[in-house]
Design goal:
This protein is mainly beta. The chain is built from one helix and four strands, in the order H-E-E-E-E. It has one helix spanning 3-6; strands spanning 9-14, 21-25, 36-41, 46-53. A four-stranded antiparallel β-sheet has the order 2-1-4-3, with no helix packed on it. Strand 1 and strand 2 form a beta hairpin. The longest helix has 4 residues, at 3-6. It starts with a helix and ends with a strand. It comes from Streptomyces minutiscleroticus. This is Large ribosomal subunit protein bL33. One of its GO terms (cellular component) is cytosolic large ribosomal subunit. GO terms for molecular function: structural constituent of ribosome.
Length: 54
Amino acid sequence: MARNELRPVVKLRSTAGTGFTYVTRKNRRNDPDRMTLRKYDPVAGRHVDFREER
């Protein structure tokens, strides 16, 4: 497998509706489904869930 296929770059968009995004990489073998991480949203000023978008 090529490097980009195994660990693609994914965008994590805030569920608070602010439009703020984080960019990260994920391992497709360990996380085949969409990622959800709880991170800080500086626009909302609090921690919210960030979901992977494609």
